[in-house]
Design a protein that fits this description.
With 91 residues, this protein is mostly helical. It has helices spanning 11-29, 34-48, 50-70. Keywords: Membrane, Transmembrane, Transmembrane helix.
């Protein structure tokens, strides 16, 4: 006996639905290979931290260029000598 407003389903239709659900669930349980999961995780991390990575690279490149410019003997006193060549700044 069915409740008012509901219908009963036959046992065959119920089994067919249950089998279809099992097939769908098996397809989603399939696990990707380890290397694929690593690559996906790496790309999602890069997407998440893109600004921070680019900022760090910019600072690193700027520091390397600044270090290179100030390490030359011709330019290593550029920040302390007076422009006219006489003496140093008073600090």
């Amino acid at each position: 006996m069915a409740l008012p407003g509901t219908t009963t389903c036959s046992s065959r239709a119920f089994r067919m639905t249950k089998m279809a659900m099992k097939r769908r669930s098996r397809a989603t349980v399939r696990q990707e290979p380890f290397l694929t999961r690593v690559v996906i995780a790496l790309f999602s991390f890069v997407r998440l931290a893109e600004f921070e990575i680019l900022f760090f690279l910019f600072v690193l490149i700027a520091l390397l260029i600044f270090k290179d410019l100030t390490s030359r003997p011709k330019y290593n006193q550029i920040f302390v000598k007076k422009p006219d060549g006489e003496g140093f700044w008073p600090f």
